[in-house]
Amino acid sequence: KAKVRTRHFLEAKRNGVRITGLTSYDTNTAAIFDAAGIDFLLVGDSAGNTVLGYDTTVPVTTEELIPLARAVASSVRRAFVVADLPFGSYEIGAEQALGTAIRFMKETGAHAVKLEGGRRSATQIARVVEAGIPVMAHIGFTPQSEHRLGGHRVQGRGAGADELLADALAVEDAGAFAVVLEMVPSEAARRVTERLTIPTIGVGAGPHVDGQLMVWTDFAGLSGGRVPRFVKRYADLRGVLTDAVTAFREDVEAGAYPAPEHEYPEA
Ligand code: KIV
Ligand code: NA
Question: Which family is this protein grouped under (predicted)?
Fold first, then answer.
């Protein structure tokens, strides 16, 4: 199958074909998701929570994400790889955003970058796109601003729906090829989706969007604790791994592992 390119996103929207995305932070999941036909893989700064053990995405750095993005980009054949710009690596201005985006493109092999913010990030998006780097925008709930937003809260309710639309139009005008809508009511997402030419990618934005994205450790049931309402658990990897590790420990303690077939013969 032909490699996914930005053109594919626009064509999918025009043709009513839904786009699929998952986060990935390593070579094994990247290869599995790619082979299963997922259109794009996001090397999200959600790695802060899912891989690095932080409470939020705020402390995640470019240095931490670059090796993960390189692992994912070098493990796909068809999927489009998007690298997240972490907090603090693009807010200062367009030149900072471009500098960080160039690092990800040169050092990882990712095909595009993602950054958070609508109207407030429009100049950054325009500068990065002008330099030849595709940008996926991200509006609605933006986790890097969770302290200002007062936690993980639904955005775009009531008058917030107009704010969401203004942000969506701003990122489209700035040249983004797609926009993530995170944690917004379905009707607000529908309104944005109908107004935009570029596809909307929902993360907790209901069904009336052009594509769906999930954090892979959530969709596959690896993460512990509570998951947001919008997550559907397609597997119980935490349960599978817990059973496997318990069986291993019990085998070792009982002397049942290794068995003869695991031993190297003398000659
Ligand atoms: O970092 C991430 O995983 C994300 C998605 C949840 C949108 O930004
Ligand atoms: Na992110």
Answer: Belongs to the PanB family.
Report the pLDDT value the prediction gives residue 225, as an integer from 0 to 100: 84
Q: Are 134 and 101 in contact (CB under 8 A)?
A: no
In the chain the domains, ranked by start, together with CATH numbers, are 6-236 (3.20.20.60)
Contact yes or no for 57/143 (Cβ under 8 A): yes
Quote the pLDDT of residue 267.
Answer: 87
Is 167 assigned to a binding site?
no
List of E strands, the chain: 19-23, 40-43, 80-84, 112-116, 135-140, 178-182, 200-203, 211-214
Taking each helix axis as running N to C, give the angle between helix 62-73 and helix 94-108, from 0 to 180 degrees, rounded to the nearest 10. Answer: 40
Q: ipTM for the complex? A: 0.99
How many DSSP H helices and E strands does the chain contain?
Answer: 11, 8
- % of the chain with per-residue pLDDT over 70: 100
Q: What is the number of the ligand closest to the CA of 23?
A: 1
Residue count (the chain): 267
Q: Which residues neighbour ligand 2 (ion) by CB within 5 Å?
A: 44-45, 84
Residues marked as catalytic = 182
